[in-house]
Design brief:
This protein is α/β, with parallel strands linked by helices. 43% of the residues lie in helices and 17% in strands. The protein has 2 domains: 282 residues, TIM Barrel (Alpha-Beta Barrel), CATH 3.20.20.20; 89 residues, Sulfite Reductase Hemoprotein, domain 1 (2-Layer Sandwich), CATH 3.30.413.10. The chain binds iron/sulfur cluster. The site of iron/sulfur cluster has 13 residues, from helix 12.
Length: 411
């Protein structure tokens, strides 16, 4: 028996090790959860989502915000519903969007003691997001010294009583649920029992996951967000291991909360999201920036493209330039990008010299390479096709793509 187990475990380890050296990402196997007409799960492209920042009661503003996101490529849009009035407003928002031909799936966020709000808003959206730390919420008691097992379980029973009707509604309407844990808003009983830790975050989610399982409801997506990337990384990894160990193959929604703005906000989000995606974790992502929400979408797509998980734009390979560079690389890269950025699906390389350029542009479909001063070599794959004066280089590249039948005019 031991020998059999050792062999099985050895095989598993070998597989895992071999996968680490693969040049493609092996995604954790997850079930498909439909959010409107967008499938989330390992059999589908990683979905991109965001959240509007308009007041939900401002129907016109919210509709415009959702449409801006959808037009930017956002595939699922979240809206906050802190009160019953906000929940009812979602009905008007949805109707206005559909009347305008915008079918983007909608998600409603509910927070403190939000069961009544959740039941109302479930009618108008495709997914409801609950925060386990707030769903049944008692004000923290600053004088409390501990939390007894009886107290812990009594709150668990209240959660079950409140949660079951929501699950029933979601099940009947075939809608989805996000169990969205936030590191900064764990319930007091979880903090006392597990501390402010990834384990506390995972246990917060698992309580709801197990309740859903008891109620035979499986349209679940789970998130474990934190504003510090190392915390978020640990929480998602532990969550995935815990789910898999218990036989739950639910998709994960990745994000770093309060990442801020500008370059650092993008880098911080990427550090968290891309690290997990590279490990095969994550089926939908949101980059949270303190900027207009539609600015989050190109960052999401860039992360997915860089990891080879989705191809939504031209992949440019360009050398950093050095003393051997035979032309103004930055300027030419911009010219090439301006001319070709609409050709989704192509890989185009711009390399400064033929010493290292052709080798390093790897598997690019086309290459623009400095040959000698003032002369450019154009490549198709690894084959040098023609030499042209630098002044004609970009036009000649476009002509080559046209000759190959791979050109489309910009929209
Ligand atoms: S490809 Fe040539 S020009 Fe570019 S960095 Fe390498 S050696 Fe320098």
């Amino acid at each position: 028996m031991t020998g059999t187990l050792a062999t099985a475990s050895q095989t598993g380890n070998d597989t895992a090790r071999n996968q680490r050296y693969d040049t493609v990402i092996h995604r954790r196997r997850t079930r498909t959860v439909m959010v409107g007409d967008v499938p989330i799960g390992s059999e589908h492209p990683v979905a991109v989502q965001s959240m509007i920042n308009e007041d939900t009661l401002d129907i016109e503003g919210a509709v415009a915000g959702i449409r801006r996101l959808a037009d930017a490529g956002c595939e699922i849009v979240r809206v906050t519903t802190p009160s019953m009035a906000h929940a009812k407003a979602m009905g008007d928002i949805r109707a206005a969007l559909r009347a305008q031909g915008c079918g983007v799936p909608l998600v409603a966020d509910v927070h403190h003691n939000g069961i009544r709000i959740a039941l109302e808003v479930a009618k108008h959206v495709d997914k409801v997001r609950i925060n386990p730390g707030l769903f049944v919420f008692d004000k923290p008691d600053p004088g409390r010294q501990d939390f007894s097992r009886e107290e812990f379980e009594a709150i668990g029973r209240r959660i079950k009583d409140d949660f079951a009707p929501l699950v029933e509604v979601l099940k009947t309407q075939n809608k989805a649920l996000r169990i969205g844990v936030n590191h900064g808003s764990l319930a007091e009983r979880m903090l006392f029992t597990y501390g402010d830790t990834p384990e506390g975050m995972v246990e917060s989610a698992m309580e709801f996951v197990r309740l859903c399982d008891e109620l035979d409801f499986h349209n679940i997506v789970i998130s474990m967000k934190a504003s510090r990337a190392p915390v978020m990384l640990a929480a998602y990894r532990l969550m995935a291991d815990t789910l898999d160990r218990e036989g739950f193959h639910y998709p994960l929604h990745l994000g770093v909360t309060e990442a801020g703005d500008g370059d650092y906000g993008r880098i911080k989000s990427t550090a968290g999201i891309a690290t997990l995606l590279a490990e095969g974790l994550g089926d939908t992502i949101r980059v949270s920036l303190t900027e207009a929400p539609e600015k989050e979408i190109p960052v999401c797509f860039s992360i997915l493209q860089a990891l080879g998980l989705r191809k939504t734009m031209v992949e440019y390979v360009a050398c950093p330039s050095c003393g051997r560079t035979l032309f103004n690389l930055e300027e030419v890269l911009n010219q090439v990008r301006d001319a070709t950025s609409h050709l989704t699906g192509l890989d185009i390389a711009v390399m400064g010299c033929i010493v290292n350029g052709p080798g390093e542009m790897a598997d690019a479909d086309y290459g623009y390479v400095g040959k000698t001063p003032g002369i450019i070599s154009l490549y198709r794959g690894r084959e040098e096709i023609r030499k042209v004066p630098e002044t004609e280089g970009v036009e000649a590249l476009i002509q080559l793509i046209k000759d190959d039948g791979r050109w489309v005019d910009p929209a």
